[in-house]
Write a structure and sequence with these properties.
Layout (H helix, E strand, L loop, with lengths): L2 E3 L2 E9 L2 E8 L4 H6 L12 H37 L1
Antiparallel strand pairs: 1-2, 2-3
Family: Belongs to the stathmin family.
GO molecular function: tubulin binding
Organism: Hucho hucho (huchen)
Amino acid sequence: MEIECSGMEVKPINKRASGQAFEVILKPPSPMSDAAHCVTSPPKREVSLEDIQKKLEAAEDRRRVSHHLSVSLSISRQLNSKTESH
């Protein structure tokens, strides 16, 4: 049983203990397909120094909050273990 898809041909190979095996044969691209698949990157947006500073400050705030949460959690666990042991 051979399967033909656009641009490739799939031939099953003898079944193996690990499962099915297939041979996939890719056809060479046609001249028409090159033009259809030409992808251009989106235009780059200008990033100002102010934007970068705002992002850095926001990241620092997130780190600070995360640190405070981890310290609070650690203290809470220590207090919890002390109250359970008494």
